[in-house]
Amino acid sequence: MLTNAFQNLFRRSDNRVYPSITPKTREGLHGCLEDIGPAGIRGWLLDGSACDTHLKVDAYLDGQLLGSGYANRHRPDISQVIGRPADCEFLIPWEAASLVRELNKLKPTQKLRIRVLAAASGREIAATDDGVRTAGQLLDYAVHTAAAVLAEEFDAAFYLANNPDVAASGTDPFEHYCIHGWREGRLSISPPIAPVQVVGEDEDRIAMIRTEFCESYYLSKNPDVAAAGIDPAKHYYHSGWREGRNPNKTFDTHYYLEANDDVLKAGLNPFWHYLVAGRKEERVASRPGGYRRSIIDLARVPEKRSTDYVVPPGDLIDNHLLASHINAALAPAVGLVISLSHDCYIRVIGGTQIFIADEQRRFADRQYAYIHLSPRRAQMTLTPLDAACEVQVVINGDFAGITTLESFIAILGERAVGFGKPRMFVVHSVLGFNEEQLVKLRTALDPARSVFWLHDYTSLCEGFNLLRDDLAFCNAPPVNSMACRICVYGAGRARHLDRMQRLFEGCDFDVLSPSASTLDLWSSRTQLPYASTAVHPHSQLVSVAVKEPPATHDAEDQQVRIGFVGFSASSKGWPIFSSLVDEFHSDPRYRFIHFAARGVSSIPECELVITESTPDDRDATTRLLHEHRIDFLAMLSPWPETFSFVAHEAIAAGCRLLCFSDSGNVAALVRRTRLGAVFDDTATLRSFFTGDEAVAVAREARAHPHRFRLIHSGTTATVKHFFQENAAT
Amino acid sequence: MTKVRCFTSFTFSYLTRATVLARTLREAHPDWELWAMIVDVPPPGLDVSESLASFDRVLYPEQLRFDRFHAWLFKHDIVEACTAVKGQALSFLLESDADAVVYFDPDIAVFHPLDTVLETLNDHSVILTPHQVTPNTTAGHVRDNEMTSLKHGVYNLGFCAVKNDETGRAFADWWARSLQIACYDDVENGIFTDQKWCDLVPAFFPRVWIERDPGCNVASWNVSTRHISFTGDGNILVNGSPLKFYHYTKINAVGDLMTEKYAGDNVEVMEVWNWYKRAIKDAHVEGIPSGYWNYGRFDNGEKIPKTARVLLRSRDDLYAAFDNPFATDGDSYYNWLLREHPEVLTTPSGGGFEPV
Prior knowledge:
heterodimer, A: alpha/beta, Rossmann fold, 8-stranded mixed sheet, 26 strands, B: alpha/beta, Spore Coat Polysaccharide Biosynthesis Protein SpsA, Chain A, 2 domains, 7-stranded mixed sheet, 16 helices, 37% helix
């Protein structure tokens, strides 16, 4: 049986807002949810004591936030009843993309209930009907009206100004809002700036709020307030908190009201309450758990992770045309490689993609034809056995077209038999394919060698970087372990491993690992059958002589420079780096620099250096790290990376690495070269900066600089014994 | 313990939770006999045998020895009713060759075999788990946890294990009699359902074992002093001891807030919490209307206000007069209310527990 101090929360009396207005109405909340239809969710909400306050409303679909809006449209009928102008109607348009995605998974007949709450108080607004609609009805509304209605009202300039991460990413703001923004509570249009009237009691409370209110934070997060030129603390006190804005970076207005029902019901300013009472009562200012909590809440089962992926448009290539392309490639070739990975390497920039481009060029040097296949629809899982698999075909670095894997196998089969020259089957990634078709493809090719690369740990789990709930390295425990039970990747892992078993049984793979640490981990955890294993690093570091650096004296040059390269992703350790920046950016000893491609989100406390490595400029990262004289590169991945180009590039640039003991290839590199530090946890990493150690190590490193040259060599085309055998046959 | 019977008590609105309990129990103890004690009547059209397939046996309260069952049941809201039958169900299940009977609340999931816990029954007759086994240190934590236990009961009766010996059966019979008298959410009068009664158990009965294993009955009320971690081989530990069973009280409601508040930075607790949300979603059974409880309504379909139940339990004359207070025709309690206390029927349903 349950016991809980908060049991009284279940004992709410009917606390709904009703449309009970009269000519004498001068106080209280009044409102009504009038219509749930094709245009959206429409109704009105009025504060009787402040008719000119445009209240925020939140709509929920079976408990999930559906969208928000403001009661700011004029209602002549209500104005007439209360005898004063009332701009109190709200319309929450359907958020098409997200809603469609959710509803598509439901039976059309499934009933869902829509409720609309006054955002500030959490009180439900009484409705003219029960708010129940079928998934089919809602889908119909969303598909036919949502995009148009929303697009008409969407304020792109406001959205980009208030969401610098979206602006930096270069994504379409409307698309971002439809897919992500609304879920994250971002506003699609500028909320009205409420007029401020200060009375005596308010002045005392505002004075209290000012004691811990951060004006610069508030204005940077709320450019509309800055533009209006009003006192930010007063704005927060009167209306900002009702709109879910935060007074500083440590107090979460929305959370505090969610967690403290009494404050919500009393309609108190939550920050004022926290300062005068809540803190003493051990109430919490923001959701506990920080970024780690966000990671696990955002973790999704793998099949749900790729539902947003864009499918490249275009018709399928004619089979005869594709056959003629393949014939043309095979005619002069002395060998043939069929290679697979999860995306089209000539159209996506990334480490694996550059690596495959390199591999293709090296095979071209050997006069091998190189045909690469990637699924048209990128997936984070193997595809269902009964699903047709369409693939993008790239022949010798040129995009040939899209076809079905079945057609490709038929075309290849006819040619492979008579080709009579060495053939290789190289799997860089299986995501987006299904194992049965891959075995058929390999059978049609009948290669001398089949290679499976351990670029990640997909062959151990669909969670390819072995992060339990995307949070922490799991060590690939037994599939029936409790860690797997609770993990988002656990439910499908046994089925996934059965499918990998069928793939490996059908392919007799030579398994290539880019690092010894990865092969050690993989070998100790896998039960898959294979022909052989070998370590074949992607790159190697060769020591080169360096000249002594010039002595530096100015303050800026004395600063220890800490860099981060790449996406601001949790799997790369960005939240930890970000928290370091947050804690130490005002410490004059340190300077933080983020090296990333255009469009990658960052944080203002960190200097951003645009860095884009491409097949034609592979040294860009090394060059920029060296130019900016980075002392430490934060490589804070929480999982054992199979091979980190960035770590090698950083060493080549003269940096020291900071990493965790679970970071696999990176930690191994640091231990081998003694160029950096390996930490057991974030506490020891923090203490490195809190004390004098970081400064001391950086000074020592500057006094004894190192420099390496990075040699890229490790593709399938450089595994010598593969070709010796082929030559023999 | 070679032969163990295990039961849980629930209504059809909690079927998904009970199903997760049964599945996780089956994984940990495939040899246990699982009983579903259902304080409800199946909704029309529900395939009962399929929806209860996770259980070996099903028990309805009508099969037990309740005097004037419908009149007695009417006095209870949904949680009171589900807990009020536990004593009799326990006695019933002990009338067998089982060596022990174990009870779990339906909103519990089992993570590890309980052999080490049940071994205690070699030397004891009853096992109880306290809400807290480690004192909190700050006033706010004590207010929310220890002081709540002082009001609602020291031991959490989401779990108990009873040996089929003289003492075990005596405990079951005493508990059943007590719950027949009063199993209400009436903290002001010293009663909290079936639970507060059990503060008396260590005094009334010998060989009662207070299980202090931090891996047992982890819940929002004790997570402030229990740290969850994972091992490299995939085990979940609580203060270093394997997680045996977690009690997901008020999940998707205030339990979310209490759990995250007291878990603090130990977000691994929220991993265990989030999994359960997915698990009950996956165990969803079609055909059970939202908020369904057969005994939550009069036979004309009208919802029974808590006040109507409280009035019946407080008036012996009314209780004696109506054998089936759920009826609405003729000389019924419903018509009596309409005539004598219509305000009882029109009062908005506030207070008491509602089916989910």
